[in-house]
Design goal:
By secondary structure, this protein is mostly helical. Helices cover about 50% and strands about 5% of the residues. The protein has a two-stranded antiparallel ribbon with strand order 1-2. The radius of gyration is 14 Å and the shape is globular. The N terminus and C terminus are likely disordered.
Length: about 120
C-alpha cells in the first residue's frame, strides 16, 4: 500500500501466475483488480491480511461504515460474493512482508497461497 504498485498488473499478465493460486471459480476476478480505486486497493490488501472493518477503519483513518462501503464496492467490481472470497483473491495477489503488500511474482515472491498449493500437490 502506498508503494505505487497497482493490482492492475495482473490484467496485463505480468502477475498472471498469482491467479493460478486461487480456486478456479475466483480466477476471473484478477482481471478486474485494475478497476479498483487506490483506496479500494488499500482496503483490498488489508482484507487479504485478515483485517476486520474496525482495524481497516483505524489503519486508514476512515469510519467503519466507509470501510464497509469500500468492501461492498470491491466485491461488486471483482464480482465476488463474500469477504472470504475477497481475502482469498487478495492473499493470492500479494505477498505479505512485515505488514506491507508486495505484488506476487515481484522479486521472487510467490504468494502465500502458492506455497500452500505446492504442499497440496506434493502430497498428491
Amino acid at each position: 500500500m502506498g508503494d505505487g504498485s497497482r493490482g492492475g498488473d495482473l490484467a496485463d499478465g505480468s502477475r498472471v501466475g498469482a491467479a493460478k493460486c486461487a480456486p478456479p471459480s475466483l480466477r476471473a476476478s484478477y482481471a478486474y483488480i485494475a478497476t479498483l480505486t487506490e483506496r479500494e486497493e488499500e482496503v483490498f490488501q488489508l482484507v487479504g491480511m485478515g483485517k476486520d472493518n474496525r482495524a481497516i477503519a483505524k489503519r486508514l483513518s476512515i469510519s467503519e461504515r466507509t470501510a464497509r462501503v469500500h468492501l461492498t464496492r470491491i466485491m461488486s467490481k471483482l464480482r465476488l460474493r463474500s469477504r472470504l472470497q475477497v481475502g482469498i483473491v487478495a492473499a493470492c495477489a500479494f505477498c505479505w512482508c512485515q505488514d506491507v503488500a508486495v505484488p506476487a511474482g515481484a522479486g521472487g515472491c510467490r504468494g502465500l497461497s502458492c506455497a500452500s498449493q505446492e504442499l497440496d500437490t506434493a502430497g498428491a
